[in-house]
Give the backbone structure.
Amino acid sequence: MQTLPSPGESFTCNGPLYDRAKEAKEFDDTKAGVKGLVDSGVAKVPRFFIHPHQNLRDLSSDTDRAATGLEVPVIDMMGYEDCRRRDVVDDLRRASEAWGFFQIINHGIQIDVMDRMLEAVKQFHEQPEGVKREWYSRDDAKKFRYYSNGDLFWSKAATWKDTLYFDFPFGEQEREALPVLCRS
């Protein structure tokens, strides 16, 4: 896997020695994800994570809300089951179309449930690679899977993230279909 050059050294992501598809596949085949890359002690960021210069915007180094004027949409679910259903749906639609994400408040999920979920995710990622590797998959038919970069093979640059994916559209899932850490 080729990595980001040292300071002062230049490179072209499209150069003759750089095969992004091959390097992305090599990374994916490890089934270790970004966390595994970090744990391996990698000293340089692999090239397929580096965005081409033409895709980067001139942003101030101060990218907080005050500097950018951007604020993540907040969707308040209070009253969703009563008179506010249409308003909430419209807010969700607008936020999804304009931003692609949003924060939901007053959703009724207890804080301790969210805290336990976050702790389980953290513990999952802290497990030895061999344990996590059993769950690594890009198979959309699997209701639970662990993977790195959903768009790894078609984006111009990979994102620096690993994902735990749960797909339970009808509620309960067979406990055996989940890693032990995610069962409670």
Notes: Residues 4-12 have pLDDT under 50 and may be disordered. The first helix runs from residue 20 to 30. Residues 89 and 162 are 30 Å apart (CA to CA). The first strand starts at residue 74 and ends at 76.
